[in-house]
Amino acid sequence: MTARGAGRGRRLGLTRDKVIAAAVAMIDRDGPDAFSLRKLATELGIENMSLYNHIPNKDALLDGVAEAVLAGIVFPEQRGGTWQERIRAHAAAFRAAAKQHPKAFPLVLTRPTQSPAALEAMRSTLACFDELRLAPEEVVHVLRGYTAFMVGSIMRELGYAIYLGAMDNDQVQQRTEAIAASGDPLLTATAPYLADSDPDTEFQYGLELLISGLAARVGGS
After folding, report:
1. What is the overall mean pLDDT for the chain?
2. What one-character DSSP code corresponds to residue 133?
3. Contacts of 50 by beta carbon, 8 Å cutoff, 6+ apart
4. Is the same domain home to 211 and 114?
5. Which segments of the chain are extended strands (E)?
6. Residue ranges making up the domain that contains 36
7. Which of 59, 101, 120, 124 sits 20 to 30 Å CA-CA off 169?
8. In this structure, are residues 32 and 109 in contact, taking their beta carbons and an 8 Å threshold?
9. Residue 187 above 90 pLDDT?
10. Mind listing where the DNA-binding region sits, in residue ranges (predicted)?
11. 3-state secondary structure of 206
């Protein structure tokens, strides 16, 4: 016996790609915590069972969302310029995608995936450092250091980690006073800067710190 509604998705011309695209749009709009297969089915105008013609379960769908968002990043061509310029362009493309999908992008950063899109992201990062001729083990260390910075910085900017931005002047002042009230000279001196946050400045500073550190290690500039 055919489950009620099981063929409706096929009759409507649904595909796995269309289901995932709808899920990306919903998560970007409502956030991952509000997402469910039932709500997605309602959004698509089908019954719940019809979704299972295209995806086996919610975890598989969320993996598909992460893959789709990652696959949508247009990494720059790895031709011309210095390795520093290439990694800056690579980081800018990754961060731009995060800002384009602020609610869905954390799935890219938190769900393990061996998809072609994930492999291409790793390959494109490794290619930025190819001219340095590092040993395979060391270039993987560089890759993971860069990735750790990108994940931490983006998650913080998107509000999924400790975040001190998006506060009005009164809130910044209150936080500055609270930090300074500790009496610790280091905390007091840095309180105005600890209390506020500029994602653009901090992202660029952190990236340049990584680049200059690697350049010093390999003897470049």
Report:
1. 86
2. -
3. 5, 6, 7, 8, 9, 10, 14, 41, 44
4. yes
5. none
6. 8-55
7. 101
8. no
9. no
10. 36-55
11. helix
Number of structural domains (the chain) is 2
- DSSP secondary structure string, 80-144? SS-HHHHHHHHHHHHHHHHHHSTTTHHHHHHS----HHHHHHHHHHHHHTGGG---HHHHHHHHH
pTM of the model: 0.80
pLDDT of residue 4: 42
**Closest alpha carbon to 13 in 43, 60, 42, 54:** 54
> How buried is 34 (Cβ within 10 angstroms: 0-12 exposed, 13-18 middle, 19+ buried)?
exposed
Q: What is the mean pLDDT of residues 175-190?
A: 82
Q: Are residues 95 and 126 in the same domain?
A: yes
More confident residue, 185 or 40: 40
Q: What is the Cα 208 distance to its own chain's centre?
A: 19
Give me 189's structure tokens: 């001196």
- Torsion angle of C-alpha atoms 65, 68, 69, 70, degrees rounded to 10: 120
For the record, the structure tokens of 67 come out as 């893959």
